[in-house]
TrEMBL record:
It comes from the Bacteria. Pfam families: DUF72. This is DUF72 domain-containing protein. Transmembrane segments: none annotated. InterPro entries: DUF72 (IPR002763), UPF0759_sf (IPR036520).
Length: 289
């Protein structure tokens, strides 16, 4: 069944202790956080699988905590994308996909995040790697090598292949975080780790994903989001269903930023209202805007 949501809004993670009082509500156990997160947001990045594979029981718990219309966009393990660079890892990939099988119908896309060292000379490896997936598996690719942002032959070849294969190109918009003064540990860490790459707003398949890496001051993000207020409705009008993933340097107020940006989008295109944050009546949601 295809979701009727015009756009999917999500964050980089679903479990964050800083959200206890203003998002989940007091008394929420860690095991309850995913269900509460999924009551508001439509998707999540799922970075956890990049660093370690979950246990089979954890995979089942994730399924039990989410509803049929929720979508994960799990990253493939770092060992596959960064250590093997997509080579000589077919059995490891298939083992990971078997482990995650209970969630296959709740996967929005499998994210192939490639390191900056993965350049045009490695494109054949990506093409071969794609053949290891079933044809109907939704895939998204995030590249970081600057040659893929140069609007030259390397980028054209990548984009054309993604279009032919119906694979989404994941778009990193890190302009907001790099506009922030490096005056906190969280901002310094984000500016050291996040790629500073040009923003090329291209939809190579049906579900273009925007990873919006926000400024720590919520209002400072609005000028950077202006272009997306035009591009996202344009994609939706074309029948696409974009994914909008919101980050902040420490993610403490990522839920609030996501809501504010979504409300901005609602002024440009008809989108369903988000459910309120699941805080308890004793601890009402604090207004950030």
């Amino acid at each position: 069944m295809t979701s009727s949501l015009p756009l999917r809004l999500g964050l980089t993670l679903w479990s964050h202790p800083a959200w206890q009082s203003e998002f989940y509500g007091s008394g929420t156990q860690a095991s309850e956080r995913l269900a509460k997160y999924a009551s508001v947001f439509h998707t999540v990045e799922g970075n956890t699988t990049f660093y370690a594979s979950p246990s089979p029981s954890t995979v089942l718990n994730w399924r039990a905590a989410t509803h049929d219309d929720f979508r994960f966009t799990f990253k493939l393990p770092k060992s596959i994308t960064h250590q093997h660079l997509l080579r000589d890892c077919k059995e490891e990939l298939l083992s990971f996909l078997r482990l995650m099988q209970p969630l296959h119908d709740r996967i929005g896309m499998w994210t192939i995040q490639l390191p900056a060292a993965f350049g045009p000379e490695h494109l054949a490896q990506l093409k071969n790697f794609r053949d290891w997936f079933p044809a109907d598996f939704p895939l998204g690719v995030e590249v970081r090598h600057l040659a893929f942002f140069g609007k030259g032959e390397a980028e054209k070849a990548l984009n054309q292949w993604l279009i032919e294969q119906n694979i989404d190109r994941i778009i990193m918009d890190s302009r907001p975080v790099f506009s922030a003064l490096p005056n906190t540990e969280a901002v310094i860490d984000a500016q050291q780790k996040k790629p500073k790459v040009p923003v090329h707003a291209i939809a190579t398949a049906k579900h273009p994903m925007i990873r919006f890496i926000g400024h720590p001051e919520i209002e400072a993000n609005l000028p950077f989001f202006g272009a997306w207020l035009h591009k996202l409705p344009e994609w939706i009008a074309q029948g696409k269903q974009p994914y909008l993933m919101i980050h902040t340097p420490d993610n403490d107020f990522a839920p609030q930023l996501a809501v504010q940006l979504y409300q901005q989008l609602q002024q440009a295109i008809a989108l369903p209202d988000l459910a309120p944050f699941p805080v308890t009546p004793e601890q009402p949601q604090l207004s950030m805007f």
